[in-house]
From TrEMBL:
Lineage of origin: Bacteria, Candidatus Zambryskiibacteriota
Protein name per UniProt: asparagine synthase (glutamine-hydrolyzing)
Alphabetized UniProt keyword annotations: Amino-acid biosynthesis, Asparagine biosynthesis, ATP-binding, Glutamine amidotransferase, Nucleotide-binding
Pathway(s) it belongs to: Amino-acid biosynthesis; L-asparagine biosynthesis; L-asparagine from L-aspartate (L-Gln route): step 1/1
Residues at the site labelled Important for beta-aspartyl-AMP intermediate formation: 355
Length: 608
């Protein structure tokens, strides 16, 4: 795992390099010619020798690469390339990707099985190719102006290169709803994300941009599996294979264990694969997972390290968070997540993590509510009548005091409404119509929309890459640790999609039924069949004084720049006031955290 940076600007880039050095403390490399400067900070995981140094060049020195990630099928691709006459100087996956691109061009990205954010520079063509894995596990940001481009693993590395930085006013209503900026949007208008699976070809001579997407699935026809036993065995076999590949490493690999189904399944399959990872866990008082992580580790006879959340270490980590993030977030679990990685530092360079299980198997309540929607046309989820409501009826629809049952029976008749109701950071009417229209357009233009049941779409292809993966990457890389996610393997994804939705999803109280059936081979029922709990934490309990103090400053800032931050003329502007601070914290703690992180990030980087 690494940090990458590049620019066509003729500026000194030492500040940008310093901003991502924590991502790769083992080695770094620079390259500069008349067209571009490239930098990579390396966290050595595969081929620890100098042969893995980057930027890396092909034999003709006309193609170079900087790469962040891991390719788990690189040995298979390498074998094919050797048969085609290629020779290799290293045992790294980076060289395989470099020479794979030399042979196949952008088609190589559809052959990869792994996580990546990479940039290749073709000297002869004067062309850059930027690519990111299909699930958005690894981040890549960029800013383009005419024939100039700057790109990096983190937003903070771009900032020293930019002469202008502007809050992304028109996108803020999405942030206030979701607690993150979806799609290619960021908090700054000039900076965009490379989308999951996106391939951007940028011509340095003309400034021409071409975009395409790597495939997840190659074959179009499939026969759905309708037998539960067959499906359970297939899921077990496929995830085991993914877990085995995710242990490919020249350094020890640990495992994040919450005691929930997803991480417990990975722990069991790790043992099945002949691995003995140290399990790292964080204990939160009042969490439903309390004690289960230790029980799972004990049952599997795996080493176990637990970090207990206290008021002191929570407050310390709260203060450290502002040096970690460079985008605002409404996810309070960023704090315990980054805290556990601070514990892992110097103990393990690589860990497996369980993100993706809920998104693939329907682990959220909204998935069960809409489990039968896979046979319906998505257009019906966003009926035209919803957007032609008279204003008084629309406000009635948006009114947060309406009962849950009434909302569900009347206005919440669509997937978009249900998702927004259950996923937004606060039950506040913040441009609901515009948000639903954005969701509709997002779905209709998404390259992978036909590969997943609609009831899973927004969680798998919006919430997961732009919230969960951002949190996982920034929290782990802040401490020089690589986090791997075996559930987000394209072959496992295709296996899950080969199972009939009728048995993959359950409309009963039992969520993730088919996955739990697969787990019974390894774990006792009492560790599998129990009430689900999230990785939530009540910020009011652990840091109320700090939060109220920061909220006071955040409200002042948002009122001062209400127009730039998308609050002016919104129906919540009057709520974001100092005399409402305690009310906000009592009723909408996630929204409060969204305001605070937005204030901390924007005020740090945007000089008004």
């Amino acid at each position: 795992m690494c940090g990458i940076f590049g620019t066509t600007l003729k500026k000194d880039f030492s500040s940008s390099a310093d901003a991502i050095k924590h991502r790769g403390p083992d080695d770094d490399g620079k390259f500069r010619d008349v067209n571009i400067s490239l930098y990579q900070a390396r966290l050595s995981i595969i081929d620890l020798s100098e042969n893995g140094h980057q930027p890396m060049f092909n034999d003709s020195s006309n193609l170079s690469i900087i790469f962040n990630g891991e390719i788990y099928n690189f040995k298979d691709i390498k074998k094919d390339l050797v048969n085609l006459g290629y020779s290799f100087k290293s045992n790294s996956d980076t060289e395989v990707l470099l020479k794979g691109f030399e042979e196949y061009g952008s088609e190589i990205f559809s052959k990869l099985r792994g996580m990546w954010a990479t940039v290749l520079y073709d000297v002869k063509k004067g062309e850059l190719t930027l690519s990111r894995d299909q699930f958005g596990i690894k981040p890549l940001y960029y800013a383009i102006s005419g024939k100039e481009i700057v790109f990096a693993s983190e937003v903070k590395a771009l900032l020293p290169q930019l002469n202008k930085l502007t809050p992304n006013t028109s996108a803020y209503f999405l942030y206030y709803n979701f607690g993150y900026f979806p799609g290619d949007l960021t908090s700054f208008k000039e900076i965009k994300k490379v989308l999951p699976g996106e391939i951007i070809n940028f011509n340095l001579r003309s400034g021409e941009i071409k975009r395409s997407f790597a495939k997840i699935k190659n074959e179009n026809n499939r026969t759905l599996i309708t037998d539960e036993n067959e499906a359970s065995q297939l899921i077990n076999k496929s995830l085991l294979e993914s877990v085995e590949k995710h242990y490919i490493s020249d350094v020890p690999v640990g495992l994040l264990l919450s005691g929930g189904n997803d991480s417990s399944f990975l722990a069991a399959l790790s043992k099945e694969a002949g691995q003995n990872p140290t399990c790292f866990s964080v204990s939160i008082e009042g969490s439903g997972d309390k004690g289960y992580a230790k029980k799972v580790a004990r049952h599997l006879n795996l080493p176990f390290v637990e970090e207990k959340i206290s008021i002191e270490n929570f407050r310390n980590q709260y203060d450290l968070l502002w040096d970690i993030i460079d985008q605002p977030t409404g996810d309070v679990s960023f704090i315990p997540t980054s805290l556990i990685f601070s514990t892992i530092k110097n103990r393990s360079k690589v860990v497996l993590s369980g993100e993706g299980g809920d998104e693939l198997f329907g682990g959220y309540q909204r998935h069960k509510n809409f489990a039968g929607f896979d046979q319906m046309k998505f257009e019906s989820f966003f009926p035209e009548s919803l957007f032609s409501l008279k204003s008084e009826n629309y406000m009635k629809f948006a009114n947060p005091v309406l009962s849950r049952a009434r909302n569900f029976l009347s206005s919440f008749e669509t997937l978009g409404n249900e998702y927004l109701y259950t996923a937004r950071v606060a039950d506040l009417p913040i441009k609901q119509k515009e948000t639903l229209l954005y969701m509709q357009n997002y779905y209709e233009n998404h390259p992978y929309k036909n590969l997943i049941q609609p009831n899973l779409f927004f969680d798998l292809f919006m919430y997961l890459p732009y919230n969960l993966m951002y949190k996982g990457d920034m929290s782990s890389m802040a401490y020089g640790i690589e986090s791997r996610v075996p559930f987000l393997d394209k072959e496992f994804f295709n296996t899950c999609n080969s199972v009939s939705p009728d048995i993959r999803f359950s409309t009963s109280a039992l969520s993730k039924k088919i996955m739990k059936e697969s787990m019974k081979k390894y774990l006792p029922k009492e560790l599998i069949y129990r009430k689900k709990s999230g990785f939530g934490i009540d910020i009011r309990k652990y840091a109320k004084e700090k939060v109220l103090s920061d909220l006071d400053e955040a409200i002042t800032y948002h009122q001062k720049y209400s127009e730039e931050l998308g609050l002016k003329d919104s129906n919540i502007c009057d709520l974001v006031k100092k005399d409402k601070a305690q009310l906000l914290l009592d009723k909408y703690p996630r929204f409060v955290f969204s305001l605070i992180t937005n204030y901390k990030v924007v005020s740090k980087y945007w000089k008004s």
